[in-house]
Amino acid sequence: MSWQEVAYTVRPVLNEAATSAMPVVVRSLTYACWRCSVTSNPPAVLHPEGATDQYSILEATSGLNLTYVRELMTLDHNPIAATIKPRYSKTRGERYLSHGCPHCDALFGEFPLEESITAVLADNAIADLPIQLATERPTIEWWALTSVRGDIF
Asked: Which of 116, 3, 136, 101 is nearest to 60 (CA)?
């Protein structure tokens, strides 16, 4: 099969993914700030609606996934978007896009958030997390996120 034949068969699939939409859900953790002890709900995972198994969810603790969640929250005019911004981490020794406390702006570390998500996954309780946002997005966006699994940036 020539590359033109492959491109011809792939093009309709890509066009469909670019023009079709899929429901995407962002769920949040209940998380107590290490500095001020106030509880908040940072967005932690995103997934296609109805698919909450460990293979369908994407953690939104850093990188591209967190950037995407911040964009979704911004588009939705959700004030939690303002709590996702670059902060300096003494542990990492650098600035990175992170969750933070809406009350005192303390950095919510990537590792502690990932531990909390892992505990929820171990209990098979992703569907029990509160929904922060439910929206429809182009299917191709989901394909892009899952193809890199948040491993860039």
From this structure: 116
